[in-house]
Amino acid sequence: MGEKQECVILMDNGSLRPEATLSLRGLAEELGARIERKVFPVSLLHSSKVDAEKLGGQKADVMVPFLKRQYAAGVRRFLVVPLFFGPSAAFKEYLPGRLEELRNEGLADLVVQFAEPMVAMDEVDREVAKVMADQVRATISGQGLDKPAVAMVDHGTPLRAVNKVRERVAALLAEELGDDVSSVRACSMERREGEEYDFNEPLLERLLGSEGYTTDVVTSLLFAAPGRHAGDGGDVDQICRSAMSSDPGMRIFRTGLFSNDAKKVSAILAERYLKLTKGVV
Hints:
By secondary structure, this protein is of the alpha/beta class. The chain has helices at 18-35, 63-72, 89-104, 127-143, 160-177, 204-207, 235-246, 262-277; strands at 6-12, 39-43, 61-62, 77-82, 111-114, 149-154, 183-188, 216-221, 251-254.
């Protein structure tokens, strides 16, 4: 199948904050330069609601309308590189269901193939942890810290498979940082109620102020891009500010976002794309 009938997509979850779409577009350009293909930045949901004026005059694309438009233009195969750390329900469950609906609506020969998420659990893969370790070290150096504690925080998830990704990255992050820090703990920003979701513990708000996390703490953000959770003034920021207001002796420093290291992140994404295309005929 020729490139004119094939489309490469970099897909994130989507956000109502314009900086998330702008970040996705920058990563798509970096990825495109690496693989020498046009890469379309497309969100799963939400982002099309952002005012185009906040996005350089160009509205964000979301998956289903984008697929329909490209299909009408003759594209039949879509190669999707997910900007996700693990097997999120968003593209493992929700999107496949929508794709089946599209095929039933008349897009019968629609083909959508997914690359692996950024953390590969079945192989020796330290690249995500290395990026995050570099960000922690930059924060330590920039703030003049001496062996702070590290709270590696993710969103929280109803899926154990996604939580296992968090635990793996935290373990690798601890190995990468070694004696540069006093400890590394994984935690979640939020969780669902019920014992069946206890694997998300500890929550960030409970980890802060607990043993070993009462003085200097660096929050390492397992969030792919800026948004209402991990961006400036977002949920993680508010949790940290609340903890510091409750304990004047605590100082919390936030690393940059994962997607800030566009060249390193695009290298991970390019590897995922190339692995996918080896099996595409």
